[in-house]
Amino acid sequence: MPKAKETLLEIDLNALDNNYKYLTSKLKPETKVLAVVKAFAYGSDSVVIAKELVELGVDYFAVAYPHEGETLRDAKIETPILVLHPLPTNFGMIVNRCMEPSIYSRKMLEEFIAFAEEKNQTNYPIHLKFNTGLNRLGFVADDVPYITETLSKTQSIKVKSVFSHLAASEDLKEKEFTLKQIERFNEISDALVAKLGYKPLLHCANTSGIINYPEAHFDMVRTGIGIYGFGNDPEENKHLKPIGTLKTIISQIHKVEIGESVGYNRGFIAEKTTLSATLALGHADGIPRSYGKGKGWVTINGKKAPILGNVCMDMIMVDVTNIDCEEGDEAIIFGATTTAEELAAAINSISYELITAISQRVKRVVLRK
Ligand SMILES: *Cc1c(COP(=O)(O)O)cnc(C)c1O
After folding, report:
1. How many other β-carbons are positioned within 10 Å of the β-carbon of residue 95?
2. Which residues of the chain have a pLDDT value below 50?
3. What are 50-109's pLDDT values in tens digits?
4. For position 3, what pLDDT does the model report?
5. What is the best residue among 84, 161, 237 to mutate for testing ligand 1's pocket, by most ligand atoms within 8 Å of CB?
6. Could you tell me the distance, in angstroms and rounded to a whole number, from the CA of residue 50 to the centre of ligand 1?
7. Residues with catalytic annotation?
8. What are the sequence ranges of the domains in the chain?
9. What is the spatial distance between Cα 31 and Cα 41, in angstroms, rounded to a whole number?
10. How far apart are CA 355 and CA 243, in angstroms?
11. Domain 244-367, CATH number (from 3.40.50.2000, 1.10.3720.10, 2.40.37.10, 3.40.630.30)
12. Are 72 and 63 in contact (CB under 8 A)?
């Protein structure tokens, strides 16, 4: 890859292929794969990623909100799309674009049936979401008789899948809790399937569920963070490759004398003569202010350059006193060397938060095989 000349997020499709193949190697051959491409495919580019995943043979996509799925449909992606958080105001878009809603409450089930009937739909695919312990979205076990009763009165919709979401699949200290969630899911799905008279797909594993709980793979798994290169586990990370590398360049270098300051609110005051490099990205690009004052760093010519003072909207300043560098040189924020997981950990955050925050003004560049 040629050196960056501006701020870029490089997206490496070879890494995506590697991660997809690694994760699916853990599945039985018949287990289906749903790729979670919400939030611009975790801050990368949902269309680019989805098209590659179609090539790799993915069975399903999931997005959080319908507009995210519409972007995929506009790009002529025809794979089924599960919408995890379809607000009733968007039912029209969902049906028009052949997306499939997650239905998680009685109110929503009734509203969606009314909508589907009004639009003369038959067997419109829906996905029933159950709460087994996350306490975020979902029906509970006691809703099963109500659901089957309600479904028996309409031809407008059909249950394509029944699913739940694990709260702590990456945390083996919570193994007992997770096994309890899986047990509840088994009980709920058994009760439902017995009444439905047909067998929807069952799924409850996210990436860490794929890795840590083979007994929770069921008919399909849902992977997000894993395909983007993070396994929430150091051993797993050895097999996965981060798909994104965030780069920028040095715009200017300043010599800062003792007692002088750098940046807003004089966030850094030099105790010795310091070389400060100004880089072309800031909090508006997705680098939170909490990385300021040395909490965060970038890599320039192979060396760590800590952030000096406060993160500005469009720029950060970093300490290059001991780094051989000049204006125009590349600075790497995260990628293979400093991973997004490692950088996120510096402010008690997680890879998910850092990568999904990379703002839309950062140019995406795709590296193809
Ligand atoms: C975001 C999301 C996922 C993906 O989880 P990862 O940990 O990124 O694999 C799976 N299922 C649901 C319901 C989600 O909201």
Report:
1. 18
2. none
3. 999 999 999 999 999 999 999 999 999 999 999 999 999 999 999 999 999 999 999 999
4. 86
5. 84
6. 16
7. 38, 264
8. 13-232, 244-367
9. 22
10. 10
11. 2.40.37.10
12. yes
